[in-house]
Design goal:
alpha+beta
Length: 481
């Protein structure tokens, strides 16, 4: 029997091997019921990636495919003595933690909280290889490993790693190996959209929902000196959060920034009308500028976007504004899996009537029930479905902000999202956006109450208004309301 003497010095290991590598292993699975499975491991150049595990439910013999997220890679110096020798031996091992994300096939739950996969470092010339030796138990049952990093970073309790797998065999796969026969146990037939054989990057694209695109449309009044400092902050906060998420998920991102001389009704209408998306795409539309509401206009609870600069007469108001909900209905009709339409603007009475044709009634609301940055971004942007519209203030209220953070709606919205992405262990993709908007309403209201508003001759009131409805089938026309 080996006696292990180890160092609890876990250092974040930045893999110097360039590019991606793919391994296939056969292993003993963790859990009380001893069984084996086969796994396809995708590792990027920093040690992250994903695992597709093919195994069988021991109770029903049902074939299961479980998708797991690889979180971090760490280097562990292991010093031990062999029972057959008094010689001290030293190995440099790498371990990665993979946590179950969801079942691609089958219903049985994975038999452990996580999966620890060990690799042996082979220098900088080759990727680390699966470690076929005995797994170090560190003197504790189930191979528990306690350490403080990155707990201090995320302000969480130290992680407890458990359930290492014993690797029985493993091999590094070449592109020519990535054919249909090898990949069939790890992917569903409908996931494949590339000819065989594949390259590792294509496997990542398939796993990440067949290359979804995120469209980030920001409409920013950056010319009005009274509000431009806060509106530019709003634009940057939105682009920063969603752009980083797209990068983490290997999604394509398309930025459309409407600002400066393009800040007008015709440009916004053209972008919305001509946007073409696919069923798995994500649309984020964020407006930051002036807004208003018409008098005696109960059909529209969301604000008009004031797409002009300077004071204009009533006719100009009507010709150069568009309601946030009209934009929402149009974008929702594109059929994207997730649509977010946000308006950080006032919703106060402009003192004029709409004086247009009868408005199209809004679609009925339909609520659908449905720590770790990548996993949480995956749930926010790749798993969530529906269409959301939100504005900073309900009818009759102004929208507030300051020059330190920007508009209270956008700054709180992006801050709450950042906190959840970085600190939430369980995110339900089908209610997370509603929860974030509810929390944003409370925080923005508290921020606004500290300011004086002449409309109320006292503390500001700013009540965020939002709703979620189902995705709508594509519709081509956009009408001004």
């Amino acid at each position: 029997m080996r006696i292990f003497i180890f160092l609890f010095a876990f250092l974040f290991f930045l893999n110097v091997v360039q590019g991606q590598s793919v391994f296939e292993i056969e292993c003993n699975l963790p859990g009380k019921i001893h069984q084996t499975g086969k796994a396809l491991i995708f590792r990027d150049k920093y040690g992250g990636g994903f695992v597709r595990l093919s195994w069988k439910d021991p109770l029903t013999n049902e074939a299961i495919i479980t998708d797991l997220d690889v979180l971090w890679e760490y280097e562990q110096q292991l010093i031990y003595t062999d029972s057959n020798s008094s010689e001290l031996k030293k190995d440099t091992l790498l371990f990665t933690r993979a946590i179950p994300y969801k079942n691609i096939k089958g219903k049985a739950a994975f038999p452990a909280n996580d999966l620890i996969i060990w690799f042996k470092q082979n220098g900088n010339e080759k990727p680390p290889q699966p470690y076929l030796g005995r797994i170090p138990d560190f003197g504790k049952p189930d191979y528990y490993i306690e350490y403080n990093y990155p707990a201090f970073r995320w302000q969480e309790n130290p992680f407890v790693f458990s359930d290492s797998v014993g690797i029985l065999s493993g091999r590094l796969l070449l592109p020519k190996d990535l054919n249909r026969d090898l990949l069939a146990p790890y992917f569903l037939p409908g996931e494949f959209s590339y000819p065989f054989p594949m390259i590792p990057e294509q496997l990542l694209t398939i796993r990440n929902k067949n290359n979804a695109t995120l469209y980030c449309i920001t409409v920013t009044d950056d010319l009005d000196e009274k509000i431009s400092k806060t509106t530019v902050m709003d634009r940057d906060n939105i682009q920063r959060f969603f752009g980083y998420g797209a990068n983490v998920l290997n999604m394509k991102v398309r930025y459309v920034a409407i600002q400066g001389k393009d800040f007008n009704f015709n440009k916004v209408n053209s972008v919305v009308r001509n946007l073409k998306v696919k069923a798995n795409d994500v649309i984020v539309f964020a407006y930051s500028g002036h807004g208003f509401s018409y008098s005696k206009d109960p059909a529209f609870q969301y604000p008009q976007l004031a797409l002009w600069h300077g004071n204009k007469n009533a006719a100009f108001f009507r010709s150069n504004s568009i309601n946030l909900e009209t934009i929402f209905n149009s974008l929702r009709g594109k059929g994207a899996r997730l649509t977010l339409v946000l308006g950080d603007c006032c919703n106060t009475d402009a003192g004029i009537t709409r004086k247009l044709e009868e408005p199209e009634p809004p679609p009925p609301a339909m609520m659908r029930t449905e720590v770790l940055i990548r996993r949480n971004y995956m749930r926010l942007l790749m798993e969530a479905e529906g269409a959301y519209i939100a504005c900073a203030a309900k009818k009759g209220e102004p929208a507030a902000g300051d020059t330190l953070e920007g508009g209270f709606f956008t700054s709180n919205f992006t801050r709450i999202l950042q906190n959840r992405v970085r600190g939430e262990s369980q995110i339900n993709p089908q209610n997370v956006w509603s929860q974030v908007l509810e929390n944003t309403r409370t925080s923005a209201l508290n921020n606004a109450s500290r300011l004086y508003c002449r409309e109320f001759n006292g503390p500001c009131r700013q009540n965020l208004v939002f709703k979620k409805v189902a995705v709508k089938k594509p519709k081509n026309s956009v009408k001004r309301k």
